[in-house]
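Researcher: We plan to redesign the surface later, but first we want a full-length starting point. Tokens attached.
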């Protein structure tokens, strides 16, 4: 039986951390979190994706370890994670935040609310700071000359 690779502590930029800059994450990232979300009474089924740490990438030293913050908040409510724990491929403590961890958003809703707040507080560039709109390309069309008709 192969153990499920997982992080044992949230990374510095984990979106589940309350101190994370959530403006650094795209709407596509938020959609991934939504698709992998489960809550008590509305568990994510076995076909729902599991969240890997966003800094882990294929073909690196630590490809695709499960996110520690996501496991601590969602893991108990994700059926595939619970099956992995029952099968012994994921330790039960993987779904519990350790006492020395940073504070985590307790739910996806709290995370999305905080992201919206952070986005609203981002300074908007002044007109002087905004780049000039691109100059449209100049199209050179050939001038078609029709021969003069003889009369």
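Model: Full-length starting sequence:
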């Amino acid at each position: 039986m192969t153990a499920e690779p997982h992080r044992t502590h949230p990374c510095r930029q984990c979106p589940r951390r309350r101190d994370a800059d959530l403006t650094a994450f795209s709407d596509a990232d938020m959609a991934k979190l939504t698709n992998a979300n489960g809550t008590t009474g509305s568990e994510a089924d076995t076909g729902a994706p599991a969240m890997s740490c966003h800094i882990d990438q294929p073909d690196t030293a630590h490809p695709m370890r499960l996110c520690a913050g996501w496991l601590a908040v969602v893991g108990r409510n994700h059926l595939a994670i619970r099956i992995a724990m029952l099968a012994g491929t994921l330790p039960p403590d993987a779904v519990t935040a350790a006492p020395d961890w940073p504070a985590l958003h307790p739910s996806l809703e709290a995370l999305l609310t905080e992201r919206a707040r952070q986005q609203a507080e981002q300074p908007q560039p002044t007109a002087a700071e905004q780049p000039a709109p691109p100059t449209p390309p100049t199209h050179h069309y050939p001038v078609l000359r029709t021969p003069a008709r003889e009369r």
